[in-house]
Amino acid sequence: MITQDLFHFLKNILAEDNTRYRKVLWGLARGCYLPINPQHQLRTWVGIQEIEIAKYVKRLVEKDFTCFDIGSAYGYYTLALARLTRMGKVIAFEPQDELFELLELTIKRNSNLPITFELHNTRIGAESSGMTTSLDDFVVRDEDRVPDFIKIDVDGAESEILQGSRVVIQRFRPRFVIEVHSYELEEDCVQLLNEYGYVCRIVNQQMIWPELRPIELNRWVIATHKRDE
What we know:
The chain is of the alpha/beta class. The protein is built from nine helices and eleven strands. The chain is globular and about 50 Å long. The termini are far apart.
C-alpha cells in the first residue's frame, strides 16, 4: 500500500483538478482526446487504464473488424477499438443520456480517425422492450452490423446481455472482453459461453496498483471460440 499512498500524494500535489479534453499519452487510446480530470482519471490520461487487459484487446481485435462497445461511457474503449481496427467499424452503446452526449462530443473531437462510428443511446439487455434491445434483435435488423469483437462493461447486466445474444454467439462467434463485478455473474457468463464452445480466461487486477472500488469483484472474462484458438 506504500505505492498506492505515494501515488495519491503525488497526484494530489501535481495534477490539476479540472476536466477538459486532453491527449492520451500512451496505451490503447494513445493520441486520442478524452475528457479527463487528472485528479480522478490519471490512469486514463497516462494510458494505463485497465492495463491488465490491454494485451488481450490488442490480440483479439484485427484490422477491418466490426467492434461493439457495450457500456461505452465517455468513449475510452470506443476510441481504443477505432485505433486497433483502423479500417473497420465501431458501434457504441451508452444508455445514460448525459454520458451519451459526452460520447458524441468525444467522437467529434476525434474526427481524424478514419473509421465508421455508430453511436446508440440504447440499453442492451436480454430482450427488446422500450429503450432496451437485445443484441440478437439489433444484429438481425441489419447484418452489416455483425460483431467480430464485443466489449461489455455495464455494471451488473453482463449475463443478461449474453442471454439476449445467443443467436449472435452461435452464428458469428464474436470474441469477448467482459468486465464482471461478482463471482456469481462471472460464473453465469463463463457457463453460457462454455455452452457455445468458448474458451474463457479470467484476468485479475494487477497486484501493485489495483483500482480500489467498493464492490465485490473487479476483473474480466476474456473469451474466444475454440475454433479461433
